[in-house]
Amino acid sequence: MKTALGNLDFADATTLSEALTLLASEPDRVPLAGCTDVYVGLNFGHIEKKRFVNIWSLSELRGISENADFLRIGALTTYTEMIESPIIAKFLPMMRDCARLIGGCQVQNRGTVGGNIANGSPAGDTLPILAVAEAMIIAQSLSGTRKIPFLSFYAGYRKTVLLPGELIVAIEIPKPPGAQWFRKVGTRAANAISKVVIAGLRGETVRLAFGSVGPTVIRARRTEAVLSSGGTIAQARDALAHDIHPIDDLRSTSRYRMQVAENLLSAFWDSTTPNQS
Amino acid sequence: MLFTLNGKITEVSAPSMKRLLDVLREDCGLTGTKEGCGEGECGACTVLVDGLPINSCLVPFGQVQNADVKTIEGLIGHTDLQKAFVSECGAQCGICTPGMILMAAPLVERAQAEGRIPALAEVQETLAGNLCRCTGYVAIYRAIQTACGAKSEQASVISGENG
């Protein structure tokens, strides 16, 4: 479907400071990264703004690095770059598993982790991973840089706590303790929007996050508490009904999503239980 | 705005928010790139930007300034793949074919250089973002494996499964 072009405005930023200056003076501009959801958003009315700033060519926002405690992923890092990164493979394999299931290769070559976060879809596939890894969002504006805990980044459905003029420049992820697990259930393996998506971390304690089952990504705190304190998987499945309240929509029913979420919880527990054949 | 199109430096005057797909078809007259879903789901509009396949229905023209864009019209040197699509009946209605070929070309090139035939699962993952509404997938997979040197009757059963 062709988009009406007449009222769309595209400003090109070639450096980060140019982008921040533009966002400071014209905070209604939407940053354009890989653009995989922009025309869809315009055509379906999710995006009402008509003015954009292109940040795709800002090389300073790309790349993956690590130190002793953290991984740092530039906001414009694509899914393909995460799939191919030895650092991701070593420290955050659930992100590689996730990136391989997002769209086809064409979308993986263009979609970015910063875009997935800023877009704030409840079905955003990387979001449960960032929730269990307790990532920090690095946001920059002309007035400086601040770190926002990912778990308090969303204020509601597709709403973030970013201030006018702020741009996500990177994500810092503490190296996750324990076994990592990611699963996505959609209508097919690749290139489908999630009906339910889960990331789990099993170390001394258990962390679990679900996507597509609420207005934003949800950490399943009650379920985590049951499993972290030695409860059974049956008790955990009961607790999950208090953590998530999925809705009926065009992709699934509430009942189906709840059943799938419980089954994924059991599958997470089985696959991360050591010494099982 | 300047960019490289099929190896030639090209200047096109078009709005920056016009989709690359529409610029290629309307302003450049290259209608080999097709529109399917217009949402990045079907891969019919696949082109290579700086060597990487992308959906041209999702990318604004302004984002390919100074980039190297290659469409099906500019794909030369992949005659094995194109011949295999013909001999193995890899094309039916033809709408998905340019996207399928552009997506498969780098895989075929890599596999030929390594002297191997990609397993069915690898071909399927490569084409995960390309839909064929004629549902001719088995013939498409067979064409790609044949282009890598598989005998027609071996292709698409190489990994021990079928389609």
Question: What does this entry look like structurally?
Answer:
The complex is a heterodimer of chains A (277) and B (163). Chain A is an alpha+beta fold and 277 residues long. Chain A folds into three domains: 9-54; 62-174, Uridine Diphospho-n-acetylenolpyruvylglucosamine Reductase, domain 3 (2-Layer Sandwich), CATH 3.30.465; 179-272, CO dehydrogenase flavoprotein, C-terminal domain (Enolase-like, domain 1). Helix content of chain A is 34%, strand content 24%. With 163 residues, chain B is α+β, with helices and mostly antiparallel strands. Chain B folds into two domains: 2-74, Ubiquitin-like (UB roll), CATH 3.10.20; 79-147, [2Fe-2S]-binding domain (DNA polymerase, domain 1). Helices cover 33% and strands 12% of the residues of chain B. A five-stranded mixed beta sheet of chain B has the order 2-1-5-3-4, with helices on one face. In chain B, strand 1 (2-5) and strand 2 form a beta hairpin. Classes of the chains: A alpha+beta (277), B alpha+beta (163).
What form of chain A results from the Cα inertia axes? globular
Round the mean pLDDT of chain A to the nearest integer and report it: 93
Helical residue percent of chain B? 25-40%
CATH architecture classification of the largest domain in chain A: 2-Layer Sandwich
The CATH class assignment of the largest domain in chain A is Alpha Beta
In total, how many domains does the architecture of chain B comprise?
A: 2
Oligomer: heterodimer
Averaged pLDDT of chain B, please? 92
Shape of chain B: elongated
Order the strands across the largest sheet of chain A as they lie in space. 4-5-10-6-7
Predict the CATH topology of the largest domain in chain A: Uridine Diphospho-n-acetylenolpyruvylglucosamine Reductase, domain 3
Q: Write down the Rg of chain B.
A: 16 Å
- First-last Cα distance of chain A: 50 Å
The CATH architecture classification of the largest domain in chain B is Roll
How many helical stretches of chain B? 5
**Beta strand count of chain B:** 5
- Terminal Cα span of chain B: 44 Å
